[in-house]
Amino acid sequence: MISLAAALALTGIGGIAAEVKPQDLVTYRQSMMVGLAWNIGGIGAMVKGVTPWDQQRVAFLANRAAQIAPMPREGFTPETAKAKSDAKAEIWTNLKDFDDRNDAMVTATAKLAEVAKAGNEAATKVAFLDTIKTCKGCHDEYQVKD
Amino acid sequence: MRELLIPIWDLPVRLFHWALLVLVGFSWWSGEQGELWLKYHFWSGYAILTLVLFRVVWGFCGSHYARFAQFLRGPVTVLGSLRELLGPQPMRSLGHNPLGGWMVLALLTVLLVQTLTGLFANDDIMWEGPLYAHVSKDLSDRLTGLHGLNFDVLLALVAVHVLAIGWHRWRKGERLVRAMVTGLKPAPSATGQSAFVSLWRAGVIFLIVALAVAGLVRL
Q1: Which residue in chain A has the smallest CA separation from B128?
Q2: Given this model, what pLDDT does residue B106 score?
Q3: What is the pTM assigned to this prediction?
Q4: Segments forming the whole domain that contains residue A84
Q5: Does the structural domain B4-119+145-217 have CATH classification 1.20.120?
Q6: Tell me, what CATH number does A101's domain have?
Q7: Sign (positive or negative) of CA dihedral B217, B137, A85, A111
Q8: Coil, helix or strand for B27?
Q9: Which positions 14-53 of A are in contact with B (Cβ < 8 Å)?
């Protein structure tokens, strides 16, 4: 993790992904997805009824999720195909489809953030379910199931 | 000519079998639906685990034809029964025939693997099995993968099971579905009839197993 941060600091962030080690890119994108899961999962616990529904908290988490959502994509470069990860090789031969699914996820989280901010619990739950569909939609196709 | 209908499958075995059919079907469907259906998928899985564990115990202290010792035979016997299996007459064995006996064991094993791996599984997003906290994410991911792969094995075994029941019906004239509903099978004589074990015993075992599973998933 420290070497990744150092590499990014030295090369300047963004646009110089080609100079970062492929395994570091994998670590970066997985970390972003964990961050996404943290916020989405937090909303999920409320949707499941495990924790009490708090519209403001949902809006807060959804807003965070929407900001993180575009971040993992930057970690998916063809060079990372040789690094150790859960990404299927099919991504690189189906890049347009992969990007479409990623865009669907980004759009869905943005919508969720909007809807959550508007304050309606039922509508928020619907938007939440639509969002997690997009997570699954990509994982089912392009995530290696161990 | 088989005039007599004699009781072979006791009520616990029959209830176990048909409840399993419903629950496995529901677990399959709810697992495919995902999202909020996973809550019920978990419950269905707990129920299946309870039933399977019950059946294993029952295989040691249940009625005569429910016992593993009664229907599990060595490979020589199994091979020896193949000609009888392929022929047009009903099997002489009233309970599970030697090959069918091993299928029972295979199905129970695969169901056990399915339910146990599920306890540790995760979906990367918002669902975690009840024992997820006890393993690393890496191990959970591998067990989740196994949960998926093992299901394919289960489906294949179920397909073979159904085809076999069809074979017994259409080739050999044996109505095994009816037998598993009524518990009765046609027999040439009353030899081989055995009294069923008390239902209280089944009830107590089931209760203990259910409590154990309930305790396990709250661990």
Answers
A1: A41
A2: 98
A3: 0.91
A4: 2-142
A5: no
A6: 1.20.120.10
A7: positive
A8: helix
A9: 33, 37, 40-41, 44-45, 47-48
